[in-house]
Write a structure and sequence with these properties.
The chain is an alpha/beta fold. It folds into two domains: 23-218, 2-enoyl-CoA Hydratase, Chain A, domain 1 (Alpha-Beta Complex), CATH 3.90.226.10; 221-268, Lyase 2-enoyl-coa Hydratase, Chain  A, domain 2, CATH 1.10.12. It is 46% helix and 16% strand. The chain contains twelve helices and eleven strands. It has helices at 2-9, 48-61, 94-113, 129-136, 152-155, 160-167, 172-181, 187-193, 205-217, 221-234, 239-254, 257-267, and strands at 14-17, 23-28, 33-38, 69-74, 78-80, 118-122, 125-127, 139-143, 147-149, 185-186, 198-200. The strands form two sheets. It has a seven-stranded mixed sheet with strand order 1-2-3-4-6-8-11, sandwiched between helices. A four-stranded mixed sheet has the order 5-7-9-10. Strand 2 (23-28) and strand 3 form a beta hairpin. Helix 4 packs parallel to helix 6. The N and C termini lie far apart (56 Å). May play a role in fatty acid biosynthesis and insulin sensitivity.
């Protein structure tokens, strides 16, 4: 019953197409969730045009205060097959190749640094740079039949840049197995390895991703942004430094109006009314 009602709730949305139709954009939950749909042919290659368009959209969205989360989905059986191989021939030249990999890397880093969470919605195959995009997202919802692979070895082009995101998402032995053998793993193996957050029936992937976005939307945007930034920063620190840094962040978090509103609401047994701002409350014990 709950799933049925959820489907009914999200039948209504607005959709816009870009001039090149590489991306579709759908708005949900009072325009607080933006769902980008990769829509390039059958395999959604991350051509330079696709990367530039998605990157530009993500940068624009991150500035909109009303947005609480972003979903990256796809049309067709492939989430993304990776870079467009026609752009990687010698005829394209090293300058073009540098532009492709540098721009792609910048976009992956930007996803990590965005204020809002980014959810990958995978209902098919994610390969090479397509897997890199999945691994760069904060949360990944996958259908049971989805496959994940870094098949560069088959082409004589080791998946070096996709491996950067992959090894930060799964154990090294798993990453090296995937990179060296070029063999795919299924969604259950991806879940066990930590590449995927949730696995559901293929028919439920979109609704599950939107449910995740809805849950995130209940909370303070400013606190979510703070938490996301802290999570990735502390992951690169030693345990000792992470705890020292975490203590400072927690103290700062307590000064946020939204934090004190949440604590007050819990004590008062009511629902919090978050402002989603970075406004601070003065320390009452400060002289």
């Amino acid at each position: 019953f709950q799933v049925k009602m959820f489907k009914i709730m999200y039948r209504t949305f607005s959709t816009t197409r870009s001039a090149k139709t590489l991306l579709e954009r759908e708005l949900y939950q009072g325009n607080s969730v933006v769902r980008f749909v990769l829509n390039d042919k059958k395999v959604n290659t991350l051509s330079l045009a696709m990367i530039n368009e998605l990157f530009a959209e993500l940068k624009a969205i991150d500035k909109i205060e009303k947005v609480r989360s972003v979903v990256i989905a796809h049309n067709g059986k492939s989430f993304s097959a990776g870079h467009e191989l026609k752009e990687l021939t010698t005829e394209s030249g090293s300058e073009k190749h540098n532009e492709i990999f540098n721009t792609c890397g910048d976009m992956m880093n930007f996803i990590r640094n965005m204020k809002v969470p980014v959810i990958a919605e995978v209902n098919g195959t994610a390969a090479a740079a397509g897997l890199q995009l999945v691994a760069s997202c904060d949360i990944v919802v996958a259908g049971k039949s989805s496959k994940f692979l870094v098949p560069g070895q088959k082409l004589g082009l080791f998946c070096s840049t996709p491996g950067i995101a992959l090894v930060r998402a799964v154990p090294r032995k798993v990453a090296m197995d995937m990179l060296l053998t070029a063999q795919p793993i299924d969604s259950e193996a991806a879940l066990r390895a930590g590449l995927v957050s949730r696995v559901v029936e293929d028919s439920e992937v979109k609704f599950e991703a939107l449910k995740v976005a809805e849950q995130i939307g209940h909370f303070s945007r400013s606190v979510t942004a703070l938490g996301k930034a802290f999570f990735y920063t502390q992951a690169e620190l030693s345990t000792v430094d992470a705890y020292r840094y975490g203590s400072r962040v927690m103290v700062g978090n307590l000064k946020l109006k939204d934090c004190q509103e949440g604590i007050s609401a819990f004590i008062g047994k009511r629902e919090p009314e978050f402002e989603h701002s970075n406004d601070l409350i003065e320390d009452a014990k400060k002289n």
